[in-house]
Every structure is written in C-alpha cells, then in structure tokens.
Amino acid sequence: MRRSLGILVLIAALSACGSDDGSGGEATDPGPSSSAPGSDASDGSGGSGWSQVALLTGSNGGGVVAETATPLPDEAAVTAFTGGLDDGLAAEVSEAAQAVDVPEGQALYGAVVSLECTPPTAVVVTRDGDDVLVRPRVEKESPSVQCLAVVTTVALVLVEE
Predict the structure, then answer these.
(1) CA 20 to 30 Å from 115, out of 3, 22, 83, 155?
(2) pLDDT above 60: residue 124
(3) Nearest Cα to 111, choosing from 53, 39, 28, 47?
(4) Is the pLDDT of residue 139 over 80?
(5) Nearest-CA neighbor of 116 among 141, 90, 135?
(6) Region entry Disordered: which residue ranges (predicted)?
(7) What is the DSSP string of 57-120?
(8) pTM given for the model
(9) What is the separation of C-alpha 150 from the centre of its chain, rounded to a whole number of angstroms?
(10) Rounded Cα–Cα distance for residues 66 and 68 (Å)
(11) With 0-12 CB in 10 A as exposed, 13-18 as middle and 19+ as buried, what is 111?
C-alpha cells in the first residue's frame, strides 16, 4: 500500500512538471503579424533620431538579413525592397509602409532584421556615415522553443534626415 501511494505521488509530481496548452504538442503557424503601427521601442523615442514604426513577421517569409536599411521613399522602392519576401509578408510590408505618414525631416527605412525561430520584439537603429543600420534587440531564446519554421522579421523605422 505504501509503495502504491508513493508511486502515485511520484506520478502526480512528474505530471505537474509538464505543461498542457491544449495543442497536443503540435506547432501552429500564426501567419504574418506586426506590432501596432506607430509603436516605438524605448530606445527609439524622443531625442534618439528614430522611431520604430512596425515589426512585421511571417513564417518562412523569405528575405535576407541586411544590417543596412533600405530607404523607402516611394512605392517603387517598397516594391523593390519586398521582392525577396513571400507574397503574404510582402503585401503586409507594402501596406504598412503605405500607411505611414512620414513627418517632414524624416525618412522611412526598411530592413529584414531576423531569420530566427523567435522574432525580436524591438530594434535598435544607429548610423554609420550615411548608412542607417537596424539591428534586432536580442532577447534570450527559451530552450524549450521548437523551431519548425524560421520566422522572417522586417522592421520599418522612421529616421531623422
């Protein structure tokens, strides 16, 4: 009887260590998503000379990470920039870029900032001469994350000219 009770307690304790989110262990693809337009990172507000407009993500969204951002002054530039992205993410980036009201004295830039399992939640922008550099703010990835599809993250930022 004691042995049976001990085994039951052990099983209960071990089962409490797991988690059940109702997914049955299957990964789901939430599809493209973005931060709210107009939101900016804590590093990018005020006197820093830049603000984060959006981080747009898509599973297997294509693209190549480039630290140097691309100026997006018009629709043709946006079309050229999104050419390497899959159709869904490209459309989302194009729509977000068109929705931005660029203030006088600023310019809109875009960059593919990450091809990782876990997308960044913010970016940091710096200048190197005339180049605008956009880097993801890296957070420690959870060791329990199963990477079934790489997530492409595109940043749109406003930068003072």
Answers:
(1) 22
(2) yes
(3) 53
(4) no
(5) 141
(6) 19-52
(7) EEET-B----SBPEE--SHHHHHHHGGGB-HHHHHHHHHHHHH--PPTTEEEEEEEEEEESS--
(8) 0.70
(9) 11
(10) 5
(11) buried
